[in-house]
Amino acid sequence: MPHDDHDTIDGDVYVSPRHLARSTAVSDPGLDPLRDLGWDLHHDHLGNAYLTAPDGKVRLGYLPEGDDDGLWRINAYKDAFGPPAWGVCFNDSAPTEFVTAFTTALAEAYRQGPDRYLARPLAGSTDRDPFQAVDPLINRGWCFDRPDLRTFAITAPDGLATLEYTTGDLDPAIELETRDARWHLWAGTSSARPYWYATASTDTPAALLRAVTEAVADPAPLPRWRDDTSSYVKDHAQTSPIHPPSPPTPTPLDVRRAAASRRPAALPAASVPRWSTTSRHALPGQRR
After folding, report:
1. Where is each DUF317 domain found (predicted)?
2. Which of 71, 133, 144, 261 lies in the 20 to 30 Å Cα band around 151?
């Protein structure tokens, strides 16, 4: 169960498995890792947002008013004025947490320089092997499949999410502009009508792809609002209520303080005249 503080959880139910969640329709979590690096943010007249790295070699578009359902489009460039070296797309239903996992990893790669954020996958390499992207899913029981001669697939245990890898030569422009990319991650029973999808082109760094598949494979559920049925797959997802946390167990010091606060204040001593044997005046009936 997640360890988030209840006051910070944006939802009233947990959704599992997390690949059956959908977008929260809040862009800030996905944008913030790159905004925190000081990247330039601007908007067009339609309300689309664009983030650009200081050197112009990585660009993100958040496109709610775009030409298709590609809500998040992230491209990296060897030359700021040349074609993209790689491109990633998350559609408008993709869980925001998966986008955030990618942009967080991208921010870290950008800090380390172009050797990291432009690192092409390389089979057999210790840190660039494309198998890195598959490994987190295998470790969570996802199963290999071969839907056709050109495609390797690995599918979630419930059969409702799949990562596909297409072999052979692909047209770079088609990879960037359509869903016919090297990597295709989607949820549902049919790739033609997915609950959500994400794509990545051939040269997308394996470490960035792994950040996404680690987020997908994480067994922790995701918070959503029960009434917002567009934010999860209602017919298949399991939901459980988010309960407020139990009050913390009081410490011995807390117990003593509580007891002290309940103890009645001592009454002041009554003012009573006291007579001594040396008094000049005796009580009535008393011999002097």
Report:
1. 52-109, 155-222
2. 71
